[in-house]
Predict the structure.
Amino acid sequence: MSRYDDMLDLPRPAMPRAKPLTGAERAAQFSPFAALSGYEAAIREAARLTEPAVELAEDGAAALDEKLRLLVDNLVRRPLVTVTWFEPDAKKEGGAFRVFTGRLRRVDRAGGLLLFEGGRRLPLAAVRGLESEIFPEFL
């Protein structure tokens, strides 16, 4: 007989101020913890891909300027325009090409913005492509 055999059949002692834990609460005490907090977010950020910014060639920039001039000349028609622009990434080098389609309200050359109905504002310096039904087919 060992020293503790007489205790094996005794009821579990109750603590007067604490309620007993449920099975889920007891299991939570032994669940894994994040030893490296923020590690998962850092891995996701490193895995996120960005594209390098592409500068327009001289002929591409000239074609874009001509399209912009045609848009300015036809603003009273509120042309439907599809704009492709480069949006730099806030956290990493590079960024992403975005596409937006909307009715052009105004071209603010001083502020460097394309202003659309609905309040959308796109930076002129980031524009890499313009498409609209008002452009002649040679552009």
